[in-house]
Design goal:
There is one protein chain. This protein is α+β, with helices and mostly antiparallel strands. The chain has one domain: Outer membrane efflux proteins (OEP). It has helices at residues 3-22, 27-36, 39-58, 102-170, 176-211, 229-234, 237-258, 296-362, 368-401, and strands at 65-71, 90-99, 264-272, 279-285. A four-stranded antiparallel β-sheet has the order 1-2-3-4, with no helix packed on it. The longest helix has 69 residues, at 102-170.
């Protein structure tokens, strides 16, 4: 008696992938899928983990050194190679340790932590780029689908007009030229649909490359709130990356500057002699900087020059980000103006032209070709408007998703 339930469960499991494919896909869902399967983000996280592991060891003392040996071993005479007959022969074991002052260790830890922060920014930049590219692919695929709806509508109109023209030809109220013109118009409409269908297929393949699934049922992109110029520049990927590069360069310069004072090393050893007292030795080793102006100071100057370079690169990147934001704002404003002007100046007259052509056809003052041309012109105006809206959406998405701190779903 449980067989029907088992059969229903199997059927539901079989239909689940089809239901998932047919579900409508929103822009936010597409971005989440893109982030989940991003290999660039995984590479960035691996780099960040590597830097974090290195940072944990940066502030620790070097490993101690164990020494084992034999001192004053005879190599000639009757006592050669004997460790017990010569009073000066001594078996020795010892340990030594290089000592880094606390300030040096803290400087090394700070430099390593700056590298971790830089890797973190690179990971965020990889995620932001993934989200941006997936969003642009989503917009291209969505508007290609909308354009296909319009060209399909033109095909429908061409088919209607052609059938009507054939009926008029049979009743001798229309000529063959009208039928031939509408036949060519239908062929043109079918070719336009094929071209748009090809563009949609390419856009869907690009979208699938980012999100991993193919979905033709895409929801319209939501309204996008652009950031301010300060928000955009402060979170711009190259600006943040170069800010971290500058911090790394300064921290590394501080580490190099600390090397001007040498590291001391201490050691202690225990010597064993046969028949005599055992001995203990201890001491401290201090490197002597003979010419710090020619060595240590040169290294510090090199690191400071790199910090200067990073600072100049950061200033240049900030200017570039500000200029890019203003260009995107300008494009957005111009596109908004064009959309409004095109709607009132082109689309509205095209719609009115259809009404006039339909009235003229009803009173036998215009042919079906004229009516089809009016309908086709109105659809072409809608396609142009779609293209402008697509460009506006892409522009706003770049403003919204390129900055790292603006990575949330729009």
């Amino acid at each position: 008696m449980y067989y029907p339930l088992i059969g229903a469960a199997i059927l539901a499991a079989a239909l689940l992938p089809l239901a998932a494919q047919s579900a409508s896909l929103s822009l936010a869902s597409a971005l989440d899928l893109a982030v989940q399967r991003s290999e660039a983000a995984r590479a960035g996280r691996a780099g960040q983990l590597s830097a974090a592991e290195a940072a944990r060891a940066a502030g620790r003392l070097p490993d101690p050194t164990l020494t084992v040996g034999v001192d004053n071993l005879p190599v000639t005479g009757p006592d050669r190679f004997s460790t017990t007959r010569e009073s000066m022969t001594m078996k020795r074991i010892g340990i030594s340790q290089e000592w880094l002052p606390r300030g040096k260790r803290e400087a090394r830890s700070a430099a390593a932590e700056a590298v971790v922060q830089r890797e973190s920014i690179q990971t965020q930049a990889a995620l932001a780029e993934t989200r941006l590219q997936a969003a642009l692919a989503f917009v291209d695929a969505f508007y290609a689908g909308e354009a296909l709806k319009l060209t399909t509508l033109v095909e429908h109109h061409a088919h209607e007009e052609l059938e009507a023209a054939r009926g008029r030809l049979m009743s001798s109220t229309a000529g063959s030229q009208e039928v031939l013109a509408l036949t060519a118009a239908r062929g043109t409409a079918e070719d336009e649909s094929a071209q748009v269908r090809q563009e949609q297929s390419a856009a869907l393949v690009t979208l699938q490359r980012w999100i991993g699934v193919r979905s033709e049922d895409l929801l319209p992109p939501p309204e996008i709130r652009p950031p301010t110029e300060d928000e955009y520049v402060a979170a711009y990927p190259s600006v943040l990356a170069l800010t971290r590069d500058l911090e790394v360069a300064r921290r590394q310069a501080a580490v190099t500057e600390g090397e001007r004072s040498p590291n001391w090393s201490w050691g202690v050893s225990y010597g064993q002699r046969t028949g005599y007292s055992d001995l203990v030795s201890f001491g401290v080793s201090i490197p002597i900087p003979l010419s710090p102006s020619e060595r240590q100071d040169r290294d510090t100057a090199a690191k400071l020059a790199l910090a200067d370079k990073a600072e100049a690169d950061l200033a240049e990147a900030t200017r570039a980000a500000s200029a890019e934001y203003r260009a995107l704002v300008s494009d957005s404003q111009r596109l908004e103006e064009r959309i409004q002007r095109y709607g009132t100046g082109v689309l509205t007259p095209a719609t009115q032209r259809i009404a006039a052509a339909r009235a003229a056809y009803a009173s036998n003052q215009a042919s079906l070709v004229t009516l089809f041309e009016a309908r086709h012109a109105e659809v072409e105006a809608q396609r142009k408007l779609l293209s402008l809206r697509r460009e506006l959406t892409r522009t706003r998405l770049q403003m919204r998703l390129k900055p790292l701190e603006q990575g949330a779903a729009p």
